[in-house]
Write a structure and sequence with these properties.
Layout lengths: L1 H21 L4 H18 L34 H11 L4 E5 L5 H8 L3 E6 L2 H5 L9 E3 L13 E7 L10 H11 E8 L2 E2 L19 H6 L29 E2 H10 L2 E3 L1 H13 L8 E6 L12 H10 L9 H13 L6
Parallel strand pairs: 1-2, 1-4, 2-3, 4-5, 6-7
Antiparallel strand pairs: 5-9, 8-9
Helix pairs in contact: 1-2, 3-4, 9-11
Length: 341
């Protein structure tokens, strides 16, 4: 029933959004329409990314192969790791985290001196914002126009977000990220196949078990995306974690290029050893992009003293890389082609 109501009301939501764009230069009317948009979305509910997805009412001892989190907090979301890596390797003064959930990355970035904002499609997440993100995150849908002007921030991030869109929606979504980003875009996206800047990805737990061998047989030239019927499923028979686009590094890189963004090879290669140190090599498939008019982030933008102080502050200083992950990074970097551009 909720999906039926949402389908019937969506045109009215879109009209409200067009109204927001019309009054962009009239702050008073914009605030009124934003409040109305928020209340309408809250009343409709969310049948995908609601409280249960973020652990509400769930037994924290077992996820039982259901999508979502046993619990969702700053630690389990790896928000401090994300904020540290962004702060250390991208010299952004302003940032927007798209798909921010309850805003833990926004909160952590703000603690590190970055003027960060967030946007998420989940009304539940926005209503339950982290303390340090309250007033800095709002509802917004990447499938429509984000509630920010062109070139609004230095850096736009989409961490474990874009795979939740169907393949047909990806080009417009990436164009929207590029519209809002003044300089850089950083994403983590579950991917498979060769990666020119680090360890590659795999099909396991992305493709149905009985189809893994088939896709592996297609070789490194297969780019995807994986057809919907072959996506890995959770215990309820839904695509695991709501992942609808599972594709190769090459496919995603080409889509970002169509949006006018250039991959920052050298920056990604600097970050991969840190991902290994933080234990994230197996979980985050990294992409760093820049606008054509923006430079690639320089090496050494943070002093060793500042890096150590920040690691201590975020309690990341005692992280030690899994030797398997570190070896995979070393092999990948040794085999990497010269950086593009």
């Amino acid at each position: 029933m909720r999906r039926f109501v949402n389908k019937r009301v969506d045109p009215f939501v879109e009209r409200a959004r067009r109204g927001l764009r019309t009054v962009a230069g009239q702050p008073r009317f914009r605030r009124i329409l934003e409040a109305a948009d928020q209340e309408l979305r809250r009343a409709l509910g969310d049948d995908v990314y609601d409280g249960a997805y973020f652990g509400l009412g769930r037994d924290p001892t077992s996820r039982a192969w259901l999508s979502g989190y046993e619990r969702y907090d700053r630690g389990t979301s790896n928000a401090d790791v994300a904020a540290y890596l962004l702060w250390r390797y991208v010299p952004a003064l302003t940032a927007l985290d798209v798909g921010c959930a309850t805003g833990f990355v926004v909160e952590a970035l703000r603690e590190l001196g970055v003027d960060a904002e967030g946007v998420d499609v989940s009304r539940y997440a926005v209503d339950h914002a982290a303390p340090g993100a309250r007033g800095h995150i709002r509802c917004g849908d990447l499938r429509r126009r984000l509630p920010f002007p062109d070139g609004a921030v230095d850096l736009v991030t989409a961490l474990e977000t874009l795979e939740h869109l169907p393949p047909t929606a990806v080009p417009a979504a990436l164009a929207e990220l590029a519209r809002v980003a003044r300089r850089w875009v950083v994403c983590t996206i579950p991917s498979f196949g060769p990666n020119r800047n680090g360890p590659g990805g795999w099909f396991q737990v992305k493709v149905r078990d009985d189809r893994v061998a088939y896709y592996e047989s297609l070789g490194p030239g297969y780019e995807g995306p994986i057809p919907y019927d072959d996506l890995y499923r959770d215990a309820e028979g839904k695509p695991i974690e709501g992942h609808l686009t599972v594709a190769s590094f090459a496919w995603w890189t080409a889509r970002f290029a169509e949006a006018g963004l250039v991959r920052c090879d050298a920056t990604e290669r600097r970050i991969h050893p840190e991902l290994a140190r933080m234990g994230m090599t197996k979980y985050w498939n990294l992409y760093v992009f820049r606008q054509l008019s923006a430079p690639e982030p320089a090496d050494g933008i943070r002093s060793p003293e500042a890096v150590e102080e920040t690691l201590q502050r975020l309690r990341l200083h005692d992280r030690v890389a899994d030797p398997v992950d570190l070896a995979a990074v070393r092999v990948a970097l040794a085999a990497a082609p010269p950086p593009a551009g």
